[in-house]
Amino acid sequence: MTGEAVYVDDILVNEQLLVGRVVYSPHAHARIKSFDLTKAKQLPGVHAVLCHKDIPGHNQMGPVVKDELCLAVDEVTFVGQAMFLIAAEHEDQCVEAERLVSVEYELREAILEIETAIEKNNLLGPVRTIERGNVEGALRSAPHVIKGELRTGAQEHWYLESQVCLCIPGEGREINVFSSTQHPSETQALIAELLGIGKHEVVVEVRRMGGAFGGKETQANHTACWTALLCWATRRPVKIRLFRDDDMKITGKRHRFLSQYEVGFDDEGVLSAAKFDLNSDGGATVDLSMAIMERAKLHVDNAYYVPNMSVTGRVWKTNLPSNTAFRGFGGPQGMAVIETVIDRIARYLKKDPAEIRFKNFYGLDTNDVTHYGEVVENNRLFLIYHQLMQSSEYQKRRKAVNEFNASYEFYKKGLAITPVKFGISFTTSFLNQAGALVNVYKDGTILVNHGGTEMGQGLHTKIQQVAAAVFGVSLERVKVNATNTSKVPNTSATAASAGTDLNGMAVKHAIDILKSRIAEAIAQVFTEKHPASPSLQDSVIFQDDYIIDEKHPERKIAFADAMPLMQLRQVSLSATGFYRTPDIGWDKEKGHGRPFHYYAFGMAVTEVLLDVLTGHHTILRTDILHDVGDSLNPGIDIGQIEGGYIQGVGWCTTEEIKWDDKGNLMTHSPDTYKIPSVQDIPRDFRTALLQGVPNPNTIRKSKAVAEPPLMLALSAWLAIKDAVSAAAQHEFEPEFSLPATNEVILLSIEKLKQKTSERVTEDVGAKPPLVSSK
Ligand code: MTE
Ligand code: MOS
After folding, report:
1. Main-chain phi, psi angles of 188, to 5 degrees
2. Which amino acids bring their CB within 6 angstroms of ligand 2?
3. Nearest CA to 178 among 450, 462, 453?
4. pLDDT tens-digit map of 268-302
5. Is the dihedral of CA 533, 535, 541, 543 positive or negative?
6. Quick one: which ligand is closest to 157's CA?
7. At residue 233, what are phi and psi to the nearest 5 degrees?
């Protein structure tokens, strides 16, 4: 806001700085027959033009599976794949040098659609199923069965700060890396392996990112590796900052999904069986695709109990940039399927979808085990549902919407409530760990280092609050340092919404250690003054910037005055902390276990107004009630909830990614890719935090907030579907996909009108497609 925040591109560097540029493949699939870099290297101002042969260590930057080359060798498998690197004194010299690079290709067939990958059986990894009960039997005996297919689209992260890295050579083999990465330890590891040096030579520092949203969990590594290689080759500081269009073309997106479902239910709309087949477009390499598919499978139930259920996930390999983490991490794609199912059941039974949702919620004491065996503890669904239905005046507004729709032909309103139940923890269980290093200085100031990174989600503010509260001091006394791999090593990515949960606990652990050391010494100080009635370590407390003997409150010393005494008495004022999430465990082969420490819950009611002639929609009002346990910072939490919802609205409505038939991204700038703007914010936006719900066994009884609210946007998507359905008096069910762009909406309305006119002429019964009743 004030322009004071320092991002990577703002770091002051001397005149030695070189500009780096990546030369990437213009083809989706081709063999590299030959290339010639001679002319490019001769250009004045150019300091390096590198190819794969110039890599001193491993030519690899795959985060989980080593299937991702840093620089292409003899083949390129997507448009945007890095082939060569250039470092020059000025940007225009880089551009000029790139023109002088010559390459001969032999084009190969490219797979650009999930369907084509399925036809060719081009899988990216193992196929896994999670199953409970007897699905086939339950489907056979169900009174009603619905089948269908749902497409959900890709999504561009659109972090405001594009991928960027600055590398500065140190002494000997040392390299200092300033990267906009969610995962400094992985960036460090990949650079070390690429350069063939020890990790102790590589320091990665992250002050903050200008937004990430999952797009910098693994894919910041690419820009960092390229920059490091140029820095290594030139022994000069080098910076690469991707242009927006390049960033959009060469980095992966949210995975698009093509999902099939078949569900059985009774006359009341209660689900008895569900079979799901989820297919995702993984892109050219594995990246995080397997974990993302896993989370989709673990969230295809959303908030609903399905006694007999199976879900199979297949990740398909295509010739597109590798798709990657994006807020929700597969959760949104899974939930969109069951929310469609519930909506279809309601339309089929001619009931309000809110009622069907309520009937299928996980129970408080019964029907409370998920398809993968975890018990839904501390279920807040009913609490939230009842409060939100009331505060949003859902029933009254449902009537008003119906009345409005009866009196307007070219405008229709729609209303929907959708829940979110989101599991908190990395599903790769060992990743649920964090470290911290807390230093207290002689003047009583405190410097907190932890493994998490700041990307705008407010993690450092929450950590500062946690540290101040645990130490019983004022906020100003505590500073949270830039994340640095030399302070806290071997960290996990800041992801899975668990940043505060994990790092907050690690910081608390370090501070608890410091407090016990200080308390022991202070008890001695007090005792020396009052030898007749000794102070005990256990009765020393830290409060309001003082250290006090609780039993003798007149014995107290200001925190800042106590620290010099600690140095005199040779007490260490530096401590590391560590945390690992207890009681979780997940067997991905068996598809069974307790992957999540707990669940976050929330619900949203969205009302939209649809212009039937143009497909344009406006969100009139959104009411959200979300569970964050005891909020560490209501301002940040509400910001995350509103931001998450709006980001989800973008995915559900206007954000549409298109490639041409050669695998070129066509929507690579803001003029063709529409993210939500201020115009798209609900006219009336009411967000509230569920009160009186402390979360057991977490840092200060709080709950993660970051990702779950994104999925609340499904209420906007289904409110639009509701309005579309109203355009044909709810007689037929609209065909619908995600995002519901104006085009999708208009086509859907067009099809409904055709059906209405066919019925008028042929008098055919009003049966929604693909539904069978027995
Ligand atoms: N909020 C802002 N402003 N910017 C971001 O990049 N990333 C989201 C979420 N909220 C993001 C954000 C994602 S994908 C995750 S996983 C979490 O923040 C990570 O931070 P946390 O675990 O500390 O909540
Ligand atoms: Mo968030 S998608 O877990 O970085």
Report:
1. -60, -45
2. 182, 214, 217, 325-327, 329, 495-496, 707
3. 453
4. 999 999 999 999 999 999 999 999 999 999 999 99
5. positive
6. 1
7. -75, -35
User: What digits encode the pLDDT tens for the residues 51-95?
Assistant: 999 999 999 999 999 999 999 999 999 999 999 999 999 999 999
User: Which whole number is the average pLDDT over 339-349?
Assistant: 98
Interval 719-733 mean pLDDT = 96
Ligand positioned closest to the Cα atom of 211: 1
Please tell me the distance from the alpha carbon of residue 601 to that of residue 629, in angstroms, as a whole number: 10
Consecutive H or E run containing 397 = helix 394-407
Q: How far, in Å, CA of 559 to CA of 113, rounded?
A: 63
**DSSP string across 618-630:** EEEEEEEEE--BS
Nearest CA to ligand 1 atom 1: 457
Task: Tell me the mean pLDDT in the region 400-410.
Answer: 98
pTM: 0.97
Index of the ligand 1 atom closest to the CA of residue 705: 24
Q: State the Cα–Cα distance between residues 157 and 155, nearest whole angstrom.
A: 6
Active site residues: 707
Position 118, amino acid: I
pLDDT, one tens digit per residue, over 634-656 is: 999 999 999 999 999 999 999 99
Cα distance between the two ends of the chain: 61
In the block, tokens 């989706």 appear at 28
Q: Where are the alpha helices (DSSP H) in 120-198?
A: 135-141, 184-195
Strands 478-480 and 446-450, bridge-based pairing: parallel
Q: How far is the CA of 495 from the centre of ligand 2 (A)?
A: 4
pLDDT in tens, 18-62: 999 999 999 999 999 999 999 999 999 999 999 999 999 999 999
Range list of H helices, 408-489? 459-471
Which of 409, 398, 378 shows the shortest CA–CA distance to 601? 378
**How far, in Å, is the centroid of ligand 1 from the Cα of 644?**
9
Distance from Cα 458 to the centre of ligand 1, integer Å: 8
Residue 764 has pLDDT above 50, yes or no: no
C-alpha closest to that of 259 among 405, 152, 342: 152
Report the separation in Å between the CA atom of 130 and the middle of ligand 1, taken as the mean of its atom positions.
28
Q: Is residue 449 a contact partner of residue 506, using CB atoms and an 8 Å limit?
A: no
| Mean pLDDT, rounded, of the chain | 97
Probe target for ligand 2 pocket from 327, 459, 705, 711, with the most ligand atoms within 8 Å of CB: 327
> Is residue 763 packed enough to be buried (19+ CB in 10 Å), middle (13-18) or exposed (0-12)?
exposed
Residue that the structure tokens 């914010």 belong to? 681
Coil/strand/helix, residue 30? strand
Question: Confidence band (pLDDT; 50, 70, 90) for 774?
Answer: very low
For residue range 567-606, what is the model confidence (pLDDT) as tens digits? 999 999 999 999 999 999 999 999 999 999 999 999 999 9
Ligand 1: lining residues by beta carbon, under 6 Å: 211-214, 327, 452, 455-457, 459, 494-500, 640, 643, 706-707
Looking at the CA of 642, name the nearest ligand.
Answer: 1
Integer-rounded Cα Rg, in Å, for the chain is: 28
